[in-house]
Amino acid sequence: MISLYASLTDRLSRADWLLATLARFVFAATLLMYFWVSGLTKLGEGVLGLFQPSVGAYAQIFPKAMEAVTYDVTQLSIFHWAVVVAGTWAEFILPALIVVGLLTRLSALGMIGFVIVQSLTDLIGHGGLEHKETFGAWFDRFPDSAILDQRAFWIFVLLVLVIKGAGPLSFDAALKRRVPEA
């Protein structure tokens, strides 16, 4: 019985391709549209909306600064604009790169940083610290707090991609096959 168990689990231990591929699939199935729709809410009008984010974009990313200037974007600095534009683009580019498996480790690392900044903004900027159910707690009986519980799972999936890479069904793997090993 023990040797049968060891034989089965040994095969799973060698299935690194499966873990990486499933991590990208889970990301695509659960988070891709979340980030894309969030990015869409930040775009301004027309084609130039990529460079002129909506007022809502500033309010989402810099809630306290926007409140301080009574939601007049023209009173914010070039720094605010650059962060909002970069954050908006990141919500489209990084998830797309992860799903197709291109620069996956770097993209997943970028998404981890994005999720951390997003969580801090939700907690500090939007007052999530004041709502125990939003912030949550680990090792309690409630698995659905928006910050500690959900985002721990998001970061875990992304960490799998940082450590394991994209897997064999990816642009990363195709490019690696084309480059001769040194």
Characterization of this structure:
Its main location: membrane. It is a multi-pass membrane protein. The chain crosses the membrane at residues 17-37, 78-102, 109-129, 152-171. This protein is mostly helical. It has one domain (20-174). 69% of the residues lie in helices and 0% in strands. It has helices spanning 2-13, 16-42, 55-61, 63-68, 78-100, 104-125, 132-135, 148-164, 171-178. The chain is flat and about 70 Å long. The model has no long low-confidence stretch (mean pLDDT 93).
How many distinct helices?
9
Specify the helix fraction band: 55-70%
Number of domains: 1
Q: Detail the poorly predicted runs.
A: none
Average residue pLDDT? 93
Question: What can be said about this structure in brief?
Answer:
It contains 9 helices and no strands. It is mostly helical and 182 residues long.
Write the layout of secondary structure elements.
Blueprint lengths: L1 H12 L2 H27 L12 H7 L1 H6 L9 H23 L3 H22 L6 H4 L12 H17 L6 H8 L4
Helix pairs in contact: 2-5, 2-8, 5-6, 6-8
Main location: membrane
Membrane topology: Multi-pass membrane protein
Keywords: Membrane, Transmembrane, Transmembrane helix
